[in-house]
Model the fold of this input.
Amino acid sequence: MSAGDLAGWATDLAPVDGGAAVRAPYRSYRETWLRLAALASAGRARARRVGESVAGEPLWAFDLVPPDVPPRATTFVMAGLHAMEHVGVATAVALLERAAAPGSPWRRHRLVVLPMANPDGFRAVEDDLVRGARRFRRANRRGVDLNRNFAVGWDDRYYLNRLLGRLFSPGAGPLSEPETQAIDRLLAEVRPTYAVSLHAFGEWIFLPYAGSRRPPADLDRMLEIARAMTAAQPYRPYRVMQLARRSRLFQARGAEIDHLHERYGALAFLIEIGAGPRLGAPGTWLLPYGWFTPPAALLERDVANVVPALEALAAL
Done:
């Protein structure tokens, strides 16, 4: 499917009833795709359908290739694996818009962006917001945590996956879900040099491995790059750490950064965007969506703090 197909599909999406309730602080599903369709229709990024979700929603990837020189590297950015983390989707959209604008830093890199990896989850959260339901959502339509479903390190017997199966369900097997299968096919084609997955929250840049405390062979290089990314952040620089070393009690078995690094050789990063729940705002304590997507003013600042970190990869 082409940019024209994307534009037609996005235009046909039904507007959200009660849309005013969900326009602040984020764009609705329809608004997100109309914005991206406009970018693709202007010829500034190639859009293609790379798979579909459990419910049949398309997964769209956007490809920007330097027009005049062979790319010296490929950077892959993915967002929205978890249903409520709309700040990552907003960041991916902002990255694409800046990358396609005059003066883009991506003059020597191929940039491939999958801005919404879990569209069923995104839509379910949107429905909750319209109805005023205070539900916590993380998984895909089948209840699988897509960030426990990748092949490297997949483990259905890990104690947290068994104890908190409704939160960290790894699925029936590695890459059992259509969303992770589509991502894996895209990675096999793209073979990224650098890869970033956008999440929320905590203000971290995490490195592999997520499912093991052993250091990856490229740890020093990834630390160097992550520190360059934090140096590019105009507001609050994020902390950097190997994910599995954050706590002896927690590992993310089957996480995407391990899959990106070990299966495809990418120097991989997981960015947790935003500070998270605001202790000084008690009205938000029982609003799970607000833990992951901040109010409008903070959302804009969080996005503006992370896009330059991603653009630091273009200088490598």
Summary: The chain has a mean pLDDT of 91. The chain has twelve helices and eight strands. The chain has one domain: 3-315. The two ends are 32 Å apart (CA to CA).
